[in-house]
Design a protein that fits this description.
Layout: E1 19-23, H1 28-39, E2 43-48, H2 51-63, E3 67-72, H3 78-92, E4 97-100, H4 115-144, E5 146-151, H5 163-183, E6 189-196, E7 199-200, E8 217-218, H6 219-230, E9 241-244, H7 259-262, H8 301-310
Helix pairs in contact: 1-6, 3-4, 4-5
The structure holds ligand LGGBLMCM and NADPH dihydro-nicotinamide-adenine-dinucleotide phosphate.
Protein name: Peroxisomal trans-2-enoyl-CoA reductase
InterPro entries: NAD(P)-bd_dom_sf, Peroxisomal_t2-enoyl-CoA_red, SDR_fam
GO cellular component, one term: peroxisome
Length: 327
């Protein structure tokens, strides 16, 4: 019998030679996605409005040996979208991946929502995603193919208190299906969505009334799904929406969840958190000079407490070193 080798797609250089744009890549899920992609060999361009956040994240990535560049971008402006993509292609000769992660909304009952307020959120999430998809298609991907992942929000059961965002995100999911068909076979573009449930990120600072006692997702868990769909491991997957929500979208409670279902004390679904252990005085002390001082999680205070409480139970381990035990 002759031996054959098996060449797994999951290699450290999975994204070698790839140039990938991550919008909103300075914070939260986008920042984690940028870290994941860079650690797998990609050149990552992170773009958003606040340049300081972008520079901090790029520095973290570079200190870890990755390649990351920053660009100012308001995704609501189609002109800026084209300029950013053109600049990337002019410099690197390609844009092989796009992560439309930037987005958000404010909370308001539908009855109090003005037409302008509705339009602002639709503009940001739906138009913003379209602007970047179109710019990527026209500038590079239409001719050379590529992979796009749109980060949306669980809107399967509607989103009480966020009518505008539910409508916009449902629009993104539907747009994704159409583009998968129109841009797939002839242009070689795969396009998919990731729909996070409640994730522990800096983004939740604008949602102070949320009860953090449930098992929320981590930013790394959302990022890992994005990376998978972006990668050749998903080369026959296009037009889908992948929920990353611990099944919250299957419950009547939707993203609000219940303690019974999501309290980490009762959950056997161990979270994945990609951050390295924080180094005491990282980057400043003599022995850690040059090493990145990575802040593990930037989220509202109650959520940080929750994170600290079950940090020891992540990645399949438990606080006392055993695998898979409950808190
Ligand atoms: C509980 C479930 C939570 C699910 C978890 C989700 C988490 C995340 O999504 S994390 C991302 C976190 N970040 C955000 O959500 C913030 C994103 N927000 C924004 O970027 C902006 O606020 C905006 C784009 C939504 C609106 O910005 P802008 O267009 O600059 O807004 P204007 O000031 O020009 O106002 C336009 C229009 O909208 C009304 N409006 C704006 N903010 C609010 C508000 N907080 N509450 C009520 N109404 C608001 C504003 O009044 C204007 O309408 P008119 O007054 O009729 O002109
Ligand atoms: N955290 C959660 O529980 C959930 C989050 N999501 C979605 O996931 C995505 C990432 O959110 P998350 O990491 O949590 O939150 P963050 O608030 O940390 O990230 C949002 C990012 O989007 C950028 N952004 C916002 N508006 C614009 C704009 N007009 N142009 C360019 N960039 C913009 C922000 O940067 P800047 O302000 O500098 O422009 C920021 O970096 C968002 O689309 C969010 O709605 C979905 C479900 C749940």
């Amino acid at each position: 019998m002759s031996m054959i080798g098996y060449n797994s797609v999951f290699k450290k250089d999975l994204f070698k030679d790839q140039v990938i744009l991550v919008t909103g890549g300075g914070t939260g899920i986008g920042r984690c996605t940028a870290h994941e992609l860079a650690s797998l060999g990609a050149t990552v361009i992170i773009a958003a409005r606040k340049i300081d956040q972008l520079i901090n994240t790029a520095r973290e990535i570079e200190l870890l040996g990755g390649k990351c560049e920053t660009m100012a971008l308001n995704i609501r402006d189609p002109k800026q979208a084209v300029e950013v993509v053109q600049a990337i292609v002019a410099k690197h000769g390609k844009l092989t991946g796009l992560v439309n992660n930037a987005g958000g909304q404010f909370r308001s009952p539908a009855s109090k929502l003005s037409p302008n307020g509705f339009a602002a959120v639709v503009n940001l999430n739906l138009m913003g995603t379209f602007n970047l998809c179109k710019a990527a298609f026209d500038t590079y991907m239409g001719e050379h193919g590529g992979s796009i992942v749109n980060v949306t929000l669980d809107c399967r059961n509607g989103i009480p208190g966020m009518l505008h965002s539910g409508a916009a995100r449902a629009g993104v999911i539907n747009m994704t299906k159409t583009l998968a068909i129109e841009w797939g076979p002839f242009n070689g573009i795969r396009i998919n969505c990731v729909s996070p449930g409640m994730m522990m990120t800096s983004g939740l600072k604008t949602y102070p009334e949320h009860n953090p006692s449930s098992r929320m997702g981590t930013e790394s868990e959302a990022a890992a799904a994005v990376v998978f769909l972006l990668s050749p491991a998903a080369s026959y997957i296009t037009g889908i929406n992948l929920p990353v929500d611990g099944a919250s979208s299957l419950t009547c409670a939707g993203t609000y969840g219940t303690e019974t279902l999501f309290n980490p004390k009762t959950s056997l679904m161990k979270p994945y958190i990609g951050w390295l252990q924080q180094q005491e005085g990282g980057g400043e002390e003599e022995e850690t000079k040059g090493q990145p001082a990575v802040k593990e999680l930037d989220a509202p205070e109650p959520i940080i407490h929750l994170y600290e409480r079950y940090k020891g139970f992540v990645n399949g381990g438990s606080a006392n070193g055993g695998g898979g035990s409950k808190l």
